[in-house]
Amino acid sequence: MTLFVARALLRLARACLGERHADWASAMEAELEAAAAAGEALPFAFGCLTAAWRAMFTSEQGHFLLTSYALVLGMVLPMAALQIGCALFGLPYLYPDQHGLAGALLERSPRQDLLPSVYQAAIPALAMLQVMIGLGHLRVGWLTLERDWAGATRWGSICLAATATLILFMAALFLDGRQVVLQGAVLAIELATIAVVARWHSQLSSGLAQAR
Amino acid sequence: MVRKRQPSKQMRLLLQVLAEERDVWRHGYELMKATGLLSGTLYPLLMRMTEQGLVEAEWREPAQPGRPARHAYRLTAAGYAVARELADTIADRPFKGALA
Description:
The complex is a heterodimer of chains A (212) and B (100). Chain A has 212 residues and is mainly alpha-helical. Chain A has two domains: 57 residues; 151 residues. Chain A contains nine helices and no strands. The radius of gyration of chain A is 24 Å and the shape is elongated. The relative contact order of chain A is 0.10. By secondary structure, chain B is an alpha+beta fold. Chain B has one domain: Winged helix-like DNA-binding domain superfamily/Winged helix DNA-binding domain (Arc Repressor Mutant, subunit A). In chain B, strands 1-3-2 form a three-stranded antiparallel β-sheet. Chain B is elongated. In chain B, 26% of the residues are buried. Classes of the chains: A mainly alpha (212), B alpha+beta (100). Chains A and B meet through helix 2 and helix 3 of A and helix 2 and helix 3 of B.
């Protein structure tokens, strides 16, 4: 069990060290056997993880890793949660009369009286589209952490196109689309930030290749 | 004027241990035991000293077959010169103290 935890800590250390220090991660892993034989596998592995964290805070590669995680955890995932939350739990802004999904499907306001069947038919499709945008955000976050920039840009563009579709349909149904426009703007900022991070990664990779 | 940064206590210790047997390749865990440094201190130090050209690192085949290769370290000529310089400075200190 101790050895299993120690190996897991070393894998985490490898992830923190990044490509530039991959050789050092292998060096730490190779020493684990000697440390385990002396009954010190866990303190050794924890020390290596501390070393990896220290290296992460001092190297440009580490700054890049921290930035990409901050982008995903601070921007992409909250956006995904907001989109999925809006669709599944019916946050008010998306639906007529600001009463959420339940309000849109069940309650009848004077405005709904004018176009009840249109709203009833459109709301599930709009909610589904919103869920898809949220799931698309999750995919963008995953691909960003995997450094698949082409994939992240492709999925981001799909989300942007879906958001534009949502805005158009909401406008056609005379729904308040200001919040969706705002989400579309945040998505555009996300895509621009991913492009900057991708460029940074490309510069780091070329620097690493030259160093080798 | 550029001020030359003094090596830390841990770096001095590592230089001293590596300089004792300059041509011998030492493994990471062995260095931990010899210096008393923890892995969280030793590895950043080795990384920095390797980047500065004071230490060279190499993958060495194990003495016993079937075991994985291990990273081993030894001082470069520049590293040995720094270690010697530091040892001389330490040796000079009592003399300087006596003069003062």
